Amino acid sequence: MRTWIPVLLIAASMAHGAKYVDPLNGSDASDGSMASPWKSLQNIHQLVDTVYVSNSAVCHFGPLSRTPYDVTIQSWGDAMPSIVFSNTDASARGPFRIEDANSWRLVLRNLRLVCPIEFTDDRLIYLRNAGRTVDIENCVFDIAVTNTNGETITLRTRGVYLRLHDNLVIGSPIRPLVNAFGDTTDTASTIDFRYNRLYHCRTGLSLSHLCNVVVANNTAFASDYLVRVYVGDLAVSNINNIVDNVTGGGRWFYGNAVDTRPFCDYNFSGDSAGSTYVNPVQGGNDQIGLTPAQLAFLETNDPLNELFLKIDNTSVAAMSDAAGAYPDLGLAAFAGWAAPVPEPAALALACAGIAVGFIRRRGGY
Fold it and tell me: Which DSSP category does 104 fall into?
């Protein structure tokens, strides 16, 4: 009996003070409880709560732009649900608007965010006014739009906080993922961009207002830019990133002029210096012009493969001294988005060692 008590307590705590979305069986006329879930995300407007989305079917966001006040949206269960966005009534702002006096925070976890080719809103998330937060982790951005206006995430004013960790960005061939452009306020925005993968993207971060930015342990492949800096009052640190196969005449780390120079150190590039940098400030520990064998990617073609853009432990990026050089940043001991994968022979040997040790302990040695 005692075995079931913690489980029941957890279930009860989840059921209290939360909302639920079941795209297959729900209704937006329901109260959003576990027993009577919503069908879409249209009811998150002015909401303060956690919303769990089921993977029962594709979830459509709905036709109206929404302003959640303080909302966490995450998967209901282990599977990653897909949320498909269509054009809304506020195309210049987009589906998520974090901007009015009571709207403070949007948190997204374990979701597939799909912007199909017919999606023509200028942006997906609009973040405005100091003190606002958007925090996105372990999500997939699946972006097929061809509308050249806007970007996926907009930081319209300074003094906001954006955290993007452990996400996969597929597509966005024309728009930047993040565009930070500002007004006349003095407070710097903070962007924490780590452990992300970019694949076939135009630009990761496009920065045009006062920001403190850490771009660390990301992997970008077959894309144009990881970071583009357009003004001189930014503190941008690019560290422990792996980049390869730049496209479209881009540069991975781009400073628009001699006074807009992103800082770069302990990055690993499979491209030439001319395709890796424009106007950088270099710490002296970057490696460029690396061969495929030196980078040792395990998979570069299938974003759904669990090994996608991972490296094995023979990679020159498998060990990085950046953590010791910049202890305040909390960096990993490797470059790229994930820990290096052991070679099959080494992994087999390690498993054999574990098995031998287990046999010896069972035998009393």
Answer: -
Say what the pLDDT of residue 161 is. 93
Instruction: Identify the CATH number of the domain in which residue 357 sits.
Output: 2.160.20
Annotate 230-263 with three-state secondary structure.
CCCCCEEEEECCEEECCCCCCCCEEECCCCCCCE
Mean pLDDT of 288-312: 97
Q: What is the pLDDT of residue 185?
A: 57
Q: How many CB atoms are located within 10 Å of the residue 233 CB? A: 12
Kindly tell me if the per-residue pLDDT of 216 is higher than 60: yes
Nearest to 53 by CA among 109, 104, 7, 95: 109
d(CA 55, CA 76): 7
Q: Does a structural domain hold residue 1? A: no
Residue 4 located in a structural domain: no
Give how many domains the chain has, as a whole number: 1
Please indicate, yes or no, if residue 321 is contained in any of the structural domains: yes
Phi-psi region for residue 349, left (φ > 0), alpha (ψ -120 to 50) or beta? alpha
3-state class of 355 per DSSP?
A: helix
Task: Assess contact for 194 and 163: CB atoms under 8 A.
Answer: no
Per-residue exposure over 54-79, b if at least 16 CB sit within 10 Å of its own CB, e if not: bbbeebbbbeebbbbbbbbbbbbeee
Helix (H) or strand (E) holding 276: helix 273-276
Task: Report whether 40 contacts 21 (CB < 8 A).
Answer: yes
Structure token pair of residue 226: 């990881």
Whether 6 has a pLDDT exceeding 70, the answer reads: no
Can you give the pTM of this predicted structure? 0.89
pLDDT tens digit string along 107-154? 999 999 999 988 889 899 999 888 899 999 999 999 988 766 778 998
Domain that holds residue 146: 9-363
Segment 59-81, tens digit of pLDDT: 999 999 999 999 999 999 999 99
